[in-house]
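Aim 2 progress update. The chain analyzed this quarter is reproduced below.
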Amino acid sequence: GKRRVVEYWPDTDLRDSEQIPFLECQACHEPGYLPSKEDERTAIEAFLRREVLPYAPDAWYDPESVKIGYEINFNRYFYKPKALRSLEEIRADLLAVEKEAKGLLEEILGGPR
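Predicted structure tokens:
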């Protein structure tokens, strides 16, 4: 038969991106190791097979659009949460507000009822 060339055009409405962990690259566990293009390709394809293709079998990626970077979540590493107040403190505040509201209501209505 005739040989045909099939070209795929991306549907921009379906475009998505993924953040692939460095752990996908087995050699990347070594301190100071910089992944090669082959490591990147292998890691991306492994991730795609395992995490994307089972849910979107016609998914594909353009190797030219791959961007390598690193994200540091500052909240995860540097956030120090404020200590929560005790239940007794909260209860005391609620009782004080309730007492103040009762006093205001009496003042508005003209005395205790």
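The chain is about 40% helix and 0% strand. The mean pLDDT is 84. These observations will guide the mutagenesis experiments scheduled for the next reporting period.
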